[in-house]
Inverse folding.
């Protein structure tokens, strides 16, 4: 499953609660950079999201997030502090599972700039799974009502 397909799944689930839009990927070689993958409104709160994918559980290197993606989500967060600006890490294992981890952009920035971390370790991701801090996707659906309870920020869970 490609990031594009995962983004469509997320967009379709967000549409069940109101407005959502997935930004189409630019054509190869056009030099266009999308600011992020999509935006939605959840319970009156704007959400901006960028998808990253791993095949099975492994360390998630922050280099997978492009600098312009971090900068755009950071800018939105600074201009609109009530917005959820998320890096959604999708961990996919063919015919077995699709797990979504919702990281507030401040959490990513805190780990990179304050803690000087280069990645989230596999054991950290597995600990989040053990603590049920993720959204399980089944039949291309997840429980959108759990969104706020599953989001991870730099102070821990919200």
């Amino acid at each position: 499953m490609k990031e594009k397909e995962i983004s469509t799944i997320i967009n379709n689930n967000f549409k069940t609660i109101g407005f959502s839009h997935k930004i189409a990927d630019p054509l190869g070689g056009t030099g266009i950079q999308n600011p992020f993958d999509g935006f939605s409104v959840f319970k009156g709160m704007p959400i901006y999201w960028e998808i990253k994918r791993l095949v099975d559980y492994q360390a998630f290197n922050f280099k997978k997030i492009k600098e312009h993606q971090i900068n755009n989500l950071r800018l939105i967060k600074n201009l609109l502090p009530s917005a959820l600006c998320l890096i959604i890490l999708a961990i996919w294992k063919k015919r077995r599972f699709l797990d979504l981890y919702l990281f507030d952009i401040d959490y990513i920035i805190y780990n990179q700039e304050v803690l000087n971390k280069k990645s989230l370790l596999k054991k950290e991701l597995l600990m989040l799974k053990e603590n049920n801090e993720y959204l399980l996707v089944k039949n291309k659906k997840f429980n959108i009502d759990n969104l706020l309870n599953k989001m991870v920020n730099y102070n821990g869970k919200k």
Notes: The two ends are 29 Å apart (CA to CA). The CA atoms of residues 3 and 95 lie 16 Å apart. Residues 3-15 form the longest helix (13 residues).
